[in-house]
Amino acid sequence: MSVAVSTDPDRIGFDPARLARIDEHFGRYVDDGRLAGWQIVVTRRGEIAHSATYGLRDREAGAPVEPDTLWRIYSMTKPITSVAAMMLWEEGRFELNDPISRWLPEFADVRVYDRGSVLKPYTVPAVEPVRVWHLLTHTAGLTYGFAQVNVVDGLYRAAGFDLGVPAGADLAEATRGMARLPLLFQPGTSWNYGVSTDVLGRLVEVVSGQSLDAFFTERIFRPLGMTDTRWWVDEPDAKRLAALYAPHPATGQAVRAEAIGRYALRAPECLSGGGGLVSTAADYHRFTQFLLRGGELDGVRLLGPRTVRFMTRNHLPGNRDLASFSPEGFAETILDGVGFGLGFAVVLDPVPSRVPSSVGEYYWGGLASTAFWVDPVEEVTALLFTQLMPSSTYPLRPQLRQLVYSALVD
């Protein structure tokens, strides 16, 4: 599959000279050593207006970024897991208000952190069950150990949940371990980025009767033609995988993070619906086009258009934005003027963020600075791939929005 430019940008409302600013701007990140390389794809109305690669997928090997480079997409796995869940919802297999303990009994008697320390936490019973919609919206009270913001994060790390799960745990065992830890807040009362989508992936397994990898392959990847998206990279394709980098604390230069990066080269014990996939620009382009087209691509329909519209509305209670509904913590998004749907951040008002976008645009990103968005108003999609962890290192995502929207001139 190709992500080559498929039309004259002028024909679909883009100024080619202004699109060229994207490569000039992000090229500087590579030229001064902050990034090893990147790949960017911009489309409108299903046509590719801009597609570019720059720099090296593996700086130490001198290997350039190529159109078929494989990228760790980390949390860009979450929208795919959310689509999987909503496919089952469309079949009537569950309701969004259902308590997840119906399928995952370990969540029947969860407790909520009240006060105290990592060594001596005090908890209270949950007054509301964790429901399916809580998982899809990150309002369940689950968290990430690596966030290192609060006591519950510390309890996660103490139990072996940091960047991954305890050694030897598969998804079923990891989910049982998560249920034994206290929630950060009462379900549905706040928003916090965490392992909710991993638990959702386990729910998909139990409800469907398939492993998550089998469900993804048979129900999503194969029908959509996402032939390169996988859970790990085996030997024949290992050279296509981009190396993972992190900024040097003193110089800001990208330094290889091999200890974490090598995990993508072996089969995972736990299938992480929240962050386990490797993909290509061509594959994720097909996923964004499927979304933009309302759940259908090339004659294959996985979701109904009303379901996609429902997923990409703000589901936070009171139509609040993340800034007013979230404790301070890690997230793959700015919080002001942004709500959250069933698996996606949703723009409510672009003004508070000071970043151009359309009301109703939806998106997400990954830990290694990858990102995508779908703008149903302008019929624009955009993809950014690089491998720099964490994603908060540089403002790559808002800068890409600046450059894309300023190039749209019709």
TrEMBL record:
It comes from Micromonospora halotolerans. This is Serine hydrolase domain-containing protein. Keywords: Hydrolase. Gene3D superfamilies: DD-peptidase/beta-lactamase superfamily. SUPFAM superfamilies: beta-lactamase/transpeptidase-like. Its EC number is 3.1.1.103. One of its GO terms (molecular function) is hydrolase activity. Residues 22-401 form the Beta-lactamase-related domain. InterPro entries: Beta-lactam-related, Beta-lactam/transpept-like, Diverse_Enzym_Activities.
